[in-house]
Amino acid sequence: MSAASDSVAATLAIAFAIGCAFGWLLERAGLGSARVLVGQFYFANLTVFKVLFSALVTAMLGAFWLDRAGVLDLGAVYVPDTFAVPQAIGGLLFGGGLLLAGLCPGTSCVAAATGRGDGLAVMAGLLLGVLAFNVGFDWLEQVYASTPLGTLTLPDLLHLSTGLVVALVAGMAVAMFVAAERLMRSRQS
Amino acid sequence: MTRHADPYLAGVGIGGVLLAAYALAGQGLGASGAFSTVAAALTAAVVGPAKAAALPALAPYLPDGLASPLRDWLVWELLGVAAGAFASAWSAGRLAWTAERGPRLTPGPRLAAALAGGVVMGIGAKFARGCTSGQALSGGALLSVGSWIFIVTAFAAAYACAPLARRLWL
Prior knowledge:
heterodimer, A: mainly alpha, 9 helices, 2 strands, B: globular
């Protein structure tokens, strides 16, 4: 094997290993179950919120401090470009679809891999949805490509330092964790 | 059957995995992108690789023609997700052939709703350029404005639709 194909194979092996850890943790938390996931939106089970935001805050704080310590070069990490209007439309469609599906794309794979037929149906639907989008792309492209804002972060937008925004997001998340625990306790009593 | 893990602990673990992805791959986690790659390759298999690669919706997903899914970072990551989830459910005694659904639903309508929901989410993820993994989690942790627009609008839409979908889940 050539050096180039060796490095491709190594990269894909890392992708598989990272995916294994991600899938293991999603299943452990119960997010392969559509009923656990949807409980979020009836205030019956806040696992989605707790897992998503504790993961987000951990990665945000880790990336911020590791970059400062010179361990991680955040400049080399891909930040998704912002397209304000299509991403708002996409979010609205996604949230509505999520209530029907009960699973998001990643957790549909968790559900399918653990024997849940609903997970497999969501995966088939996702594939059909992407194909439908591609078929209609000529017609949708104008909206899809509208409001391009490039790499735009909250500190840029708010004219605040990254450290302050990181602290604000972390503080907001902790306040919402406390509120979530109180809500669940009041529901049980 | 083992109980589910503490959600905060699992979340911190996923945050650590995401950090490892940033450091080792220069990108975050994802899921919907793998579906885009598979859809593009399926289309290329039907209409021919040259014709598919000339379509602006498909070209970004076909850097290696028909072999693209075999060399795609997100496809391998998602295969890993399935393997890790299977191992976790197996060791916890949670593997089961079933369709998870609300108490008032039979499997048929549940699978139809799951399929329809998948279609809508698939279109939404295309507009948003990612899903819960790639946009909300991975982009949100990097404070991307578009990722936070996605988080807020997706949660708002799900809460707004919840009262309409009670029959499905409660």
